[in-house]
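Q: Please design a sequence for this.
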């Protein structure tokens, strides 16, 4: 199985587009009542889009992990040989951390928004009926997009580390083979 770059582009852009569409989220709901405040929120797809974005981030991370650890062409490369490359090691951990942070922020904002919609009766007069912070959604979008792009970089670095371990020849030639000809 060969993981293609298109998966990372697809899921990264999908995550980002879903969060851009959530930017039209209202800042607050409409409070109704005097002694008991009932919050009426306008219909918006924030919770559904947040959930789909989280699933897209999980798919992107799963494909990223698969691209690093799956043996290509039936040839397995040991993990110590892959992570001998310091750059791959660093990008792998940064991609993992960005995935966890982006997913956590995404879940936090989505669950908070869902709880605001479900728990809409408050025994506090003059309750403001807030919604989830739009900045949290935007931050989660950028971190999730970064995570998807970092998994793409990990795929490229894994390809280089496998080629080095298997001592495969570069199809573009060696570095010293560049010839310059001049016409007189």
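A: Design:
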């Amino acid at each position: 199985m060969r993981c293609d770059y298109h998966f990372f582009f697809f899921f990264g852009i999908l995550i980002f587009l879903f969060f851009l569409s959530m930017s039209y989220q209202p800042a607050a709901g409409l409070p109704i009542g005097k002694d008991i405040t009932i919050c009426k929120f306008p219909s918006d797809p924030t919770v559904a889009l947040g959930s789909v974005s989280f699933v897209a981030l999980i798919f992107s991370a799963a494909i990223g992990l698969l691209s690093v650890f799956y043996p290509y062409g039936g040839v397995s490369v040991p993990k110590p040989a892959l992570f001998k490359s310091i750059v791959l090691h660093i990008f792998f951990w940064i991609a993992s951390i960005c995935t966890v942070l982006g997913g956590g922020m995404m879940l936090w904002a989505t669950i908070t928004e869902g709880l605001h919609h479900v728990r809409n009766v408050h025994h506090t007069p003059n309750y403001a009926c807030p919604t989830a912070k739009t900045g949290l959604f935007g931050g989660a979008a950028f971190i999730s997009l970064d995570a998807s792009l970092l998994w793409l970089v990990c795929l490229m670095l894994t390809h280089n580390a496998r080629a080095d371990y298997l001592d495969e020849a570069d199809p573009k030639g060696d570095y010293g083979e560049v010839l310059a000809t001049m016409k007189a």
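Q: Thanks. Anything notable?
A: The chain has one domain: 5-168. The helical segments are 5-21, 46-69, 79-82, 86-118, 134-166.
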